[in-house]
Amino acid sequence: MTQARTVTFPSGAQVPALGQGTWHMGDDPSRRADEIAALRRGLDLGLTMIDTAEMYGSGAAEELVGEAIRGRRDEAFLVSKVLPSHADSKGTVAACHASLRRLGTDRIDLYLLHWRGSVPLHETVEALDSLVSEGSIGSWGVSNFDVDDLADLPEGAHPETDQVLYNLTRRGPEYDLFPRCRELSIPIMAYSPVEQGRLLGHRALAAVASAHGAFPVQVALAWVLRRDDVIAIPKASTTAHVEENHAALDLHLTDDDLRALDQAFPPPTRKQPLEIL
Ligand SMILES: NC(=O)c1ccc[n+]([C@@H]2O[C@H](COP(=O)([O-])OP(=O)(O)OC[C@H]3O[C@@H](n4cnc5c(N)ncnc54)[C@H](OP(=O)(O)O)[C@@H]3O)[C@@H](O)[C@H]2O)c1
């Protein structure tokens, strides 16, 4: 079986570079069984990092993840997120404990501030540190933080990752955020790596895909995964999609492919504010 390239967090934890997203999972009861089967198939294939959040379905996605990992907790690396509106000292701890209950576990491996809100960052970071101390989370990180947001973190605060929007149509972070994260030695988590499906009908993607006998979705993922500091977390709610995405690990884009994709989706030449979905 294909072994995914791994990415190492500053804590030393290692995860496969291809994980699984869960936004909108658990929203539709008629799809529940398929979604759980998809996450479990992903675990079978080694896509062990599962990304969720208290926001997704107001906890429904976390409950679904809890069901999917029942009896398999040790195989999964769980990532969840606290809403900025909960991210004060008491709220962060309460939100984490509620997420733990929904996930049916006593530990979230990596806990992120979903985006920056009005709570002072030092207050959130203190609460996150206390969750590490009590063992409820393995470590913490941030999401949707641009370069200036990272700079505003309190001195001595070391996030494990920055989870941001990144795909062929959203290359802005390559200009300054990715170099900054490299300086800080933190890997990036690329969310919406296939632009929620909108990318998949693009002609340039189809051309590269057909040259490899691959699907466009696999080209989109292989392109994100070409960087050694990026983890991609596509959401797939069928086992067939999970298997297709997993096979992207075997797709190696050539220099010609990368040039063709650069032409269709030019890299940034100046600072672009970080985009958010
Ligand atoms: N931190 C943040 O602010 C933030 C924001 C957005 C997302 N996220 C995280 O990132 C994850 C991924 O982002 P996303 O869900 O927005 O978008 P995405 O992963 O780019 O796209 C998901 C869409 O692609 C489809 N898809 C997946 N694999 C496919 C395949 N092999 N063939 C055809 N279609 C396929 C899915 O369909 P099916 O569902 O039918 O398989 C779904 O409609 C989220 O689920 C969430 O965990 C984080």
Please give the structural blueprint:
Blueprint: E1 6-8, E2 14-16, H1 32-44, E3 49-51, H2 60-68, E4 77-82, H3 89-103, E5 108-113, H4 121-134, E6 137-143, H5 147-151, E7 162-165, H6 177-183, E8 188-191, H7 203-212, H8 216-224, E9 230-232, H9 239-247, H10 255-264
Parallel strand pairs: 3-4, 4-5, 5-6, 6-7, 7-8, 8-9
Antiparallel strand pairs: 1-2
The structure holds NADP nicotinamide-adenine-dinucleotide phosphate (NAP).
The site of NADP nicotinamide-adenine-dinucleotide phosphate has 26 residues, from helix 9.
Brief write-up:
With 277 residues, this protein is an alpha/beta fold.
Largest beta sheet, briefly? 7 strands, parallel
Tell me what the CATH architecture is: Alpha-Beta Barrel
> What is the CA-based Rg, rounded?
18 Å
> CATH superfamily name?
NADP-dependent oxidoreductase domain
Structural class: alpha/beta
CATH class: Alpha Beta
The share of residues in extended strands comes to 5-15%
In the CATH hierarchy, the third-tier topology is known as: TIM Barrel
CA-based shape: globular
SS summary, helix count? 10
Number of domains: 1
| Average of the residue pLDDT scores | 97
Q: Spell out the helices and strands N to C.
A: EEHEHEHEHEHEHEHHEHH
Bound molecules: NADP nicotinamide-adenine-dinucleotide phosphate
If strands are numbered along the chain, what order do they take across the biggest sheet? 3-4-5-6-7-8-9
Task: Tell me what the structure shows.
- With 277 residues, this protein is α/β, with parallel strands linked by helices.
- The chain has a single domain, classed as TIM Barrel.
- The protein is built from 10 helices and 9 strands.
- It has helices spanning 32-44, 60-68, 89-103, 121-134, 147-151, 177-183, 203-212, 216-224, 239-247, 255-264, and strands at residues 6-8, 14-16, 49-51, 77-82, 108-113, 137-143, 162-165, 188-191, 230-232.
- A 7-stranded parallel sheet has the order 3-4-5-6-7-8-9, covered by helices on one side. Strands 1-2 form a two-stranded antiparallel sheet.
- Helix 4 links the parallel strand 5 and strand 6 (137-143).
- Helix 2 (60-68) packs across helix 3.
- It starts with 5 loop residues before the first strand and ends in a 13-residue tail after the last helix.
- The model has no long low-confidence stretch (mean pLDDT 97).
- The structure holds NADP nicotinamide-adenine-dinucleotide phosphate (NAP).
- NADP nicotinamide-adenine-dinucleotide phosphate binds at residues 21-23, 51, 114, 143-144, 163, 191-197, 217, 233-238, 241, 244-245, 277.
